[in-house]
Design a protein that fits this description.
This protein has one domain: Sandwich (Immunoglobulin-like), CATH 2.60.40.180. By secondary structure, the chain is an all-beta fold. 0% of the residues lie in helices and 64% in strands.
């Protein structure tokens, strides 16, 4: 079983980014949509097949209107955080 969660941190403001729209896609199909909670977290799926997926974020940034990450997920749980500020963003494979 493969599962996926995310966490969006507004590093410009120094706090979690609440109410950020996030979608999980595979090819042209949207599999899940969520908004981050008050702690900037969202759980997107608990029953995925291993494979390539896209995470699409709409962060609180005057420059980045949409950030898309393509990730290859294997078995187990995956956590993919997004760090965003007004003019930069980064991600990493979380634990």
């Amino acid at each position: 079983m493969t599962s996926l969660s995310t966490h969006v941190l507004d590093t410009g403001a120094g706090r979690p980014a609440a109410d950020v729209a996030v979608s999980l896609r595979r090819g042209d199909e949207t599999l899940a949509e969520a908004r981050t909670d008050a702690d900037g977290r969202a759980r997107l799926a608990d029953d995925l097949e291993p494979g390539v997926y896209s995470l699409v974020f709409h962060p609180p940034s005057p420059f980045f209107r949409r950030v898309e990450l393509e990730v290859e997920l294997g078995e187990g749980h995956h956590h993919v955080p997004l760090l965003v500020s007004p003019y930069s963003c980064a991600s990493y494979r979380g634990s």
